[in-house]
């Protein structure tokens, strides 16, 4: 498990700056006025800070850019990092500044003294940037160097306020890290059984967890979900996570995630090139699990239930086939056109169960569902489909505030008609045209008529080959921050 960097919060201490080891970082506003901390560091370094702020390099530096003095004379620190940042920066620039520091590493001591005294806004977002970009998944490396920063000591003016706000942010970072760890894990480690075990670990944070096994799923009539996993030696499961931090008896928000721990495509087997990336096909379930952890850690005043369908899609003598007809929990029959359109078969049963059992105020499902959404939106935005403008706009606003790209896509009767079967009620694939919308419309058929619902296709954003601002290459944890903020906006004001 990847741990979030350890942060401590302290009053500004000029003597501690002089004695600090590792790296010392401080904020320098574009107006080049030296703060108390900057004046102290300038004196210790024989005027080096003043020379930098008067230089052309500082004038041309972009917002959130870092200028480093290595092995500064007059200090015990290995490096001093000057961060050009407005005293009231945007969330994006504040996080970008923190991320830039995280990428630099902590030197041989892995210690960072981060001086945020003088910032009037979004100081906690600098902390969040350091935390998120400090992620490094290496559970399977035999050589394990120190993390970029093991310990970060944050100095500020209003310590209590910054610490309280930062702790809430760091709880969200813990959820992001859990999602990233789950998505990064290889399938021989993260089996359906192991995934369920990790979810059960959330009970230590106060989440109520229930795991349904195959016999229970069969009794419930989840024939669509069970068909997907019947070719695998890993048993199919549904995990239910409840966080009841709101009013007693108040209906929850339901989050539903696709948890295909590995997707070969089944009998409709995928090409071998790139199949190794299909360890991330449980990304939707990973996001739901990460959100539930964040809510518990920050003691969210909300009622939320997370449900994830855990299966493995494998070819074997027991596997389901193209041409099969399966019966969903709703009772609708589904013709299997391709066994590689398996995620919607998992989701439709879990969504129906979530609505019938919990009667939620709204439901959001997340899935790495289609390659079509990547063709349409690339890796910049998730595709968002909804039957309810109010709920959808609430999510889009939250995603925008957190810098997580999301774009609303169309639903409609024409897309639904493409999913009608000649021999069953529905088919699980409607051809290449508008593949993301037809998949969403398939799921729409399993939403109660009066249920506010959002479907989020995260196939393009769950994993990135190249590093992003807040994550190294690999799993991004996209969606944890946006959903957490949406829940705060909806339930906590």
Structure description:
- With about 500 residues, this protein is of the alpha/beta class.
- It folds into two domains: about 5-155, Leucine Aminopeptidase, subunit E, domain 1 (3-Layer(aba) Sandwich), CATH 3.40.220.10; about 175-490, Zn peptidases (Aminopeptidase), CATH 3.40.630.10.
- About 35% of the residues lie in helices and about 20% in strands.
- The protein contains 17 helices and 19 strands.
- The chain has helices spanning about 15-20, 35-45, 50-55, 55-60, 90-105, 125-135, 160-185, 190-200, 215-220, 225-230, 285-295, 345-360, 370-375, 390-400, 415, 435-445, 480-490; strands at about 5-10, 25-30, 65-70, 80-85, 110-115, 150-155, 210, 235-245, 255-265, 305-315, 325, 335, 360-365, 380-385, 405-410, 425, 455, 465, 475.
- It has an eight-stranded mixed sheet, sandwiched between helices. Strands 1-6-5-2-4-3 form a six-stranded mixed sheet.
- Strand 14 (about 380-385), helix 14 (about 390-400) and strand 15 form a beta-alpha-beta unit.
- The protein starts with 5 loop residues before the first strand and ends with a helix.
- The relative contact order is 0.11.
| Strand composition percent | 15-25%
Count of domains: 2
**Helical content class:** 25-40%
What structural class results from the helix and strand content?
Answer: alpha/beta
Give the neighbour order of strands across the main sheet: 7-8-10-9-13-17-14-15
CATH class of the largest domain: Alpha Beta
Terminal Cα span: 32 Å
**CATH architecture tag of the largest domain:** 3-Layer(aba) Sandwich
Distinct helical segment count: 17
Shape: elongated
